[in-house]
Amino acid sequence: MSHILKNKVLDDFILWSNLKNGDERSFSLLFEKYYRDLINYGNSLCPFAEKVQDCIQDVFADIWLYRASLLDNVIVKAYLLSSVRKRIARLHERDYIFKKTTTTDVLEFLFDFSIENALVEDEVTAERVLHLNKLLNDLPGRQKEALYLRYHQGLSVDQIAELLEVNYQSANNLLHRGLLSLRKEWKGSIPLLILIYSGLL
Amino acid sequence: MQKRNNYTEIEDFLADESFQLWILSKIDEQGWEEWTLENLQRAKLVEDARLLLLAMRVPDSKLSSSQVHEALQLTWQRIEQREALSQETLKIKRLRTIRYWGTGIAAAILVGLFSAWFFKNDILPHDNIVTYNELVEENNEGLVEQTNNTEKSQTITLSDGSSVLLQPNSKLSYPKIFTGNERKVYLSGEGFFEISKNPKKPFFVYANEIVTRVVGTSFRIKAYPDQQNVEVLVRTGKVRVKSNDMVRSVENEEIILLPNQAVRFARKDFVFNKITNITADPILVNSVTNIEQLSFEFTDIPVAQILETIEQAYLVDIDFPNDKLKDCRLTTSLSDQPLAEKLKIICKSIGNDTNYEMNGNQIVITTSGCN
């Protein structure tokens, strides 16, 4: 498992350094590998699908055109997600030119988590999951975004901190606070025994 | 793998890819189920994590790989546009085409085209030009080429029955037999096309910087390498014209032409001008060819006369038994048909035992007369 993960990262490193040296194929491979993830993330920051596509294509165009000045040893996925976020933020700034905002704080995470219905076998679980889902979606946008980046895009806390432009501790808090408040509410309402048995079906 | 023994928080589980795989895809490669059952406290944590994962679903992206591929091509186009802007001084234009390899992996193939700036051509800027030779080289279907060096037009019949009337100083490359789902030919100079109908296999004419797409119609294309404009004029049916993907165009617009409409593409400015009234355009009026002036609507006309019209239109020789067809008259409409189709219809109308054979521009009709 960690072996696979390492390979994946290694691949990215190789593709990235080939790209830096002008290899178009590596560029295309990275594009195809991450385009869907980026669209998914972009759409949760901006409701206009076409603008999101534009932003992502611009990010890649920039990477190619300024490849000579790219850093080595970049975690490609984190870099891409972060670049897309910045682009979309810039778009926002332009649209809201009268609000004097200069940070990416203006971005609101619009995404709602849904439920893995197909994997919920019994009613008790279904109810719990539904409840949890509602609690999750009621979290502040930034906490939701942190959770999304951590558990769906697989970024580390470090990378999330960098992407959201906060320090490590704050990023950790965002993640932790989200789950903590969740757990408080939900522990009160769920008998432990049911949890154990329903979990081992 | 043993690091999971130290997991104390839900977060530890959520971030574990193999755990996610087990919960969401039911792929238990590392014995999570067994491991969970070992310890009650652990089982509780696992269940919490499981419920959370189930409640935190992110729908899969619905993009197909062709959509991703399309986005990639758009990105390359974007890059080229920006490169072109910033490298104006270098005067280097690259043409990129992206091809899929068997594995489905896209590979960008770079064709570097170094414009011959030293031989500055006064007519056209070099970086937007597509030549016939480039187009033909791109194709790997094993093309045959016909060049018309004579002073009269020549008729070419393609494997699908379509005919092309090739003007002097023009050439056409085409596959001996059309295979696959597209019919592609390449033109330099001028030709009048009559395409046999086949909506399943669209017909493409590549000529200089533009591509003309039809399913079955007749139209004329004028695309000489040393002229400033490319023209497409439609006689029957519907024709789509757009610029070739090989060249950068700011807006990749598609022009749709109906009968007696034309488009003139200015190669220098890369602009399409649609002409809806062709009779008011002196250039188009003057270049009308024989075939376009002739009517193929026949009402009770002697067969000999019909065949004569065909001879004039396609500049072919038709040999037929005059005495046997002396009293044969036909009423038919042949306007929208390629040469081979016209002959077929005529033969069928005359009688069952009537056939034709075509050899270059020599056509022989055999018959025992009309019934």
Please explain how this structure is put together.
Chain B: This is FecR family protein. The complex is a heterodimer of chains A (201) and B (371). Chain A is mainly α and 201 residues long. Chain A has helices at residues 2-20, 24-45, 49-65, 76-95, 123-138, 141-151, 157-164, 168-189, 192-199. In chain A, helix 1 (2-20) crosses helix 2 (24-45), helix 2 (24-45) runs antiparallel to helix 3 and helix 5 (123-138) packs antiparallel against helix 8. The longest helix of chain A has 22 residues, at 24-45. The radius of gyration of chain A is 20 Å and the shape is elongated. Chain A starts with a helix and ends with a helix. In chain A, 32% of the residues are buried. The model of chain A is unreliable at 1-6, 97-104 and 191-197 (pLDDT under 50). Chain B has four domains: 2-55, no CATH class; 62-114, no CATH class; 130-286, Jelly Rolls; 294-366, Phage tail protein beta-alpha-beta fold, CATH 3.55.50. In chain B, 26% of the residues lie in helices and 31% in strands. Chain B has helices spanning 10-14, 17-25, 32-37, 40-55, 65-86, 132-138, 282-286, 290-293, 303-314, 339-350, and strands spanning 93-100, 106-113, 143-148, 154-157, 163-166, 170-175, 183-194, 203-207, 210-214, 218-223, 229-236, 239-243, 254-257, 262-266, 271-275, 297-302, 317-319, 329-333, 355-359, 362-366. In chain B, strands 3, 4, 5, 6, 7, 8, 9, 10, 11, 12, 13, 14 and 15 form a 13-stranded mixed sheet that branches. Chain B has a three-stranded mixed sheet with strand order 17-20-19, with helices on one face. Chain B starts with 9 loop residues before the first helix and ends in a 5-residue tail after the last strand.
